[in-house]
Amino acid sequence: MKALIISEDEKVYTTLDEILKNANYDTIIYKWLLKALDNIEEIRPDLIVVSSSEYPRHWKTLVQFVKSGIGGDDVEIYLYEPTPVSDEDQEKARVLGVTGCFSEFDEFGKMVLPQAQEPQDEIGPQVFEENLVSSRSERQPVEGPKEEVPLVENTQTSSQETAVTNTGHFMFTHPSTQKFISGKYFDYNGKTLSCSFFDEADLSSVKEEMLIESFSFFDSIKVRTARVIIKNIMSLAPSNTFVIVEIKDIYEEN
Question: Vertex 133, ends 6 and 128: CA angle to 5°?
Answer without folding.
Answer: 30
